[in-house]
Amino acid sequence: MKIYDTKTAPTPRRVRMFLAEKGIDMDYVQVDIQGGENLSKEMRAKNPIGKVPILELDDGTCISESDAICTYFEALQPEPFLFGETALEKGQVMMWQRQVEFCLFMQIGMCFQHSTGYFKDRMNPVPEYGKEAGINASKFLSVLERRLGESEFIAGDKFSIADITTLCAIDFARVVKIKLSDEQVNLARWYEQINARKSARA
Ligand SMILES: N[C@@H](CCC(=O)N[C@@H](CS)C(=O)NCC(=O)O)C(=O)O
Q1: Are 114 and 127 in contact (CB under 8 A)?
Q2: CATH class for domain 87-201?
């Protein structure tokens, strides 16, 4: 079993951190996405949309999409529960996970791609869209600031995949100069706590 990974990219980091939390060892194969290695015929045979991460099982079966890979490992080894344990926790984790993905992670990704032209060899950057996406991401940080004023973790009183996704998004946001503001004290408290976990170095 192995995972096609790119050490510098935010989405594969989510999976590395998730597996570190579970204590699952993995063989990681580095893919040069800036050089376009992910777009080769071989890689597209593993994931037709040419993105990392990709989990390849020993029989050659591939699972792409970071959430799908994490879901697979949660089913194989449920504890520690990172998608919630009870029905209520599962619902709340998934609710926050999706909101963080759509309103923060993806917005930061679009801001990066459209304002830096990093992938201009394979897409048409639209700088105005990049700017708008950055504004959207900053607005959602305010939502999280309020949330963390009433909750220890993003999805409730337990650490979950929603915290992993948020940490990876906020760290990557530095590349496009989106940072927590000095007033966001709840986010700062939460960040310090999550960033101190051993898995954050995975
Ligand atoms: N929804 C996918 C997103 C995967 C994704 O966008 N990966 C980026 C790295 S963070 C990538 O492979 N980019 C290469 C490219 O766009 O050519 C997931 O969660 O796995």
Answers
A1: yes
A2: mainly alpha
Q: What CATH number was assigned to the domain covering residues 2-76?
A: 3.40.30.10
Answer whether 0.90 is exceeded by the pTM: yes
pLDDT confidence band for 77 (50 / 70 / 90): very high
* Residues in Cβ contact with 201 at an 8 Å cutoff, skipping those fewer than 6 apart: none
- Between the CA of 52 and the centroid of ligand 1 the distance, in Å, is 5
Predicted confidence (pLDDT) per residue in 82-111, tens digit: 999 999 999 999 999 999 999 999 999 999
Q: How far is the CA of 149 from the centre of ligand 1 (A)?
A: 31
**Which atom from ligand 1 is nearest to the alpha carbon of 51?**
12
d(CA 171, CA 201): 12
Domain ranges, ordered by start, for the chain? 2-76, 87-201
Residue 34, SS3 per DSSP: coil
